[in-house]
Amino acid sequence: MAKLVLPVIIPLLVWSVVVIWHVWKGRKLKIAYACFVLQDMAVAWLLICPNPYLYGMGTNTLLGIIVLLSAQAIFNLMVTAAILARLAARKMCDVPFDSGRRDFIRNSMFYPAMAGGVSLGGGFMENHQEQVLREIELPVKRLTAPDGYRIVQLSDIHLGPFFSLEQLSLLLEKASQQGGDILAATGDLFDSDEKTNLEAVRILDGYAPSFPDGIYIVFGNHEYHRAINGVRQRLSASRICLLQNNAVQVPGKALWVAGVDYPRNKETFQEDREKYHRMALRNVSHGMTAILLAHHPECIDDGARSGIALTLTGHTHGGQFCILGQPLFPIFRYNRGLVKSGDSYGYVHSGNGSWFPCRIGCPPEIAVFTLKAAQQDLEHSNRG
To answer: Domain 131-383 is in which class?
Structure first.
């Protein structure tokens, strides 16, 4: 998602110039807004630059810069909405121009105060609030796994400046208290330096006894920004099951867990995704309930076409900036929450952390799924 920064920053830069030129005339305000423009450019460079620059900056300093950037973005959006609303009102209602009202808009502190408040809340409060617990019961047709089987999902933890190993331990402790049979992590967990990532494997492995049927993970795109060969080796020596275009049967259960790797080549994304899906399911026993783990939410469609009972994904962070649960920037086909397609379900996790430390209307979550036999199957069983 870091590559999405420039398409966001460039319009901000353009609009910054428009606002300062047409709305404000004071020289001091022009200088202040020019500083905001320079800040946008600095943060854009920071987010796409090599890792040493990012990790060399103090966490609080980086968080403060990003909160300021978010406040400016919200401020620009609010001013845009206000100007468009006034233009629409004048066109539709033939409202005469009122210089006094324009002066009020120009001099009002409401916009920067509101923008600053929302940004501070998203950066320092909501992004660090306690993980929300989502309990979801799914009626599954022809369920072969035990009725009441529980799956705990984590996703997009993004170890690094904004999610520490201590926070990972607290998250896993809370996840382990949900009575899950298995733990599924759907990518972008190992997003830090090698030492931190390897320690994270050790911490995760320590929670294996809390999930009697195992811990299963897949990689996301951010793992491939890091040196993950060491992580692979450490995982192979642990009790954690890394799934990369393959599937395993849960020991002693009529249940399969499959996982697909993240298709990294944009030019062949569709072809690679379909190929990975076929590879992952090639050995899955016909008629058994299967769960598919993936990072990209479009894999939900692949799971539905193959009759997968439940496909768990992440990647979107739930939209990260939402109003009433709806993403402000719905750039993915599936952005947040539960999706039902035929007899299959998919879920897009809102993420437990973030590489961009600001959430608005989209708190981090722990998702817990309980698989239940569908009602028609129960009725058929009772008649039998």
So the answer is: alpha beta
